[in-house]
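Q: What residues go here?
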């Protein structure tokens, strides 16, 4: 099988699996007073410290969650509660956010918030100027992702962070696709909330975190115990946390080497496909995650291409959400100005460093074959 869908999820790193197995020995509940509990609590504390060191923040600024979706919800909900208190009920959200952010924003609109959705340019980048234009006196939060999950386009988050600091507006960054793949120091980034998820960098699924700057408001949106400083109730998933921290440690240690390998694979792929009549790259090459390529195969159905590739044991993605059995065209590509037909003809390829050169050749040949089978072009 050739797996080219690392933006959806990544294989578990061997080191992370090992760390999870060791952590399973710490079976006590970290909230228990006895020895077993204290041992588990000790491990939890040291994992939080290691993670904070990797993120360049304080251990108190890390909240463990069940993943990117929960972290995004938590950040938007915290800002909403704060906004209500201050009488500020407007939010600025980029139109290319993941549904974890967009659907939370839609829910907040139902609850009385006004949201301005800011579109990207044709290159897939939401400019800081367009964010600035959308700000109002009563804006409580701006949300802009670090890198888009469909196009891999990296957004001007540091610029927007400076803008938000100047205007005293909370800033949320969904860094789910970026952490572990590009160098990132949270103290330099300057956001109030940063969401991340372990399964995008070789950790297990169902675990992630939210960085919350010391000065940023945070409220629990679940009722229960007083774990995570009373902000996120529920017994901590110690093995998953251990797997996440180890996966991030290894990802960051190998970052430069992996980036080079992944970018090499992606660049070869892009160079070959760009020569095919009817195939165009969505977004641009500069300022893109190293492993991402998103192509429009004009005149073909992305869904059919995906199924034909899947029959050849090649896993890629349409980047489209599957709602009630019907494929919706990608909201990201539509926001960039692609037509419905173009969005419905687009496939996302997201590479991992484990791909061999022989697999790359098979991938290229197979993509050319399935496109030719549908359109006669090659
Ligand atoms: N945000 C982005 C940008 C994502 O790509 C994803 C997952 O695809 C999520 C949030 C949701 O993360 P999780 O699967 O950990 O809930």
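A:
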């Amino acid at each position: 099988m050739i797996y080219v869908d690392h933006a959806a999820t990544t294989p578990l790193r061997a080191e992370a699996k090992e760390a999870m197995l060791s952590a399973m020995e710490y079976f006590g509940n970290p909230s228990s007073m006895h020895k077993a509990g204290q041992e588990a609590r000790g491990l939890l504390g040291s994992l939080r410290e290691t993670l904070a060191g990797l993120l360049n923040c304080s251990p108190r600024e890390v909240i463990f969650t069940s993943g990117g979706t929960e972290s995004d919800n938590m950040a938007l909900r915290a800002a909403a509660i704060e906004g209500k208190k201050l009488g500020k009920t407007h939010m600025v959200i980029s139109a290319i956010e993941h549904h974890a952010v967009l659907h939370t924003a839609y829910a907040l609109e139902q609850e009385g918030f006004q949201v301005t959705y800011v579109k990207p340019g044709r290159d897939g980048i939401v400019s800081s100027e367009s964010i600035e234009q959308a700000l109002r006196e009563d804006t409580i939060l701006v949300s802009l992702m670090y890198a888009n999950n469909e196009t891999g386009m990296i957004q001007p988050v540091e610029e927007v962070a400076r803008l938000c600091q100047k205007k005293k507006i909370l800033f949320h960054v969904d860094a789910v696709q970026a952490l572990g793949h590009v160098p990132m120091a949270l103290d330099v980034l300057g956001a109030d909330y940063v969401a991340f998820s372990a399964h995008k960098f070789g950790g297990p699924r169902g675990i992630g975190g939210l960085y919350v700057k010391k000065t940023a408001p945070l409220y629990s949106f679940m009722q229960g115990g007083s774990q995570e400083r009373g902000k996120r109730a529920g017994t901590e998933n110690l093995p998953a946390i251990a797997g996440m921290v180890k996966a991030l440690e290894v990802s960051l240690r190998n970052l430069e080497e992996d980036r080079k390998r992944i970018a090499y694979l992606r660049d070869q792929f892009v160079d070959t496909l760009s020569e095919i009549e009817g195939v165009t790259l969505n977004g641009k090459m500069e300022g893109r995650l190293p492993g991402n390529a998103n192509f429009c195969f004009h005149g073909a159905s992305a869904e059919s291409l995906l199924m034909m590739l899947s029959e050849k044991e090649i896993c890629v993605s349409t980047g489209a959400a599957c709602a009630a059995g019907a494929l919706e065209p990608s909201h990201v590509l539509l926001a960039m100005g692609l037509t419905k037909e173009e969005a419905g003809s687009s496939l996302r390829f997201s590479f991992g460093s484990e791909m061999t050169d022989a697999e790359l050749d098979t991938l290229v040949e197979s993509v050319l074959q399935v496109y030719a089978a549908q359109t006669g072009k090659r």
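A: Context that may help when evaluating the design: The radius of gyration is 21 Å. The chain is about 40% helix and 15% strand.
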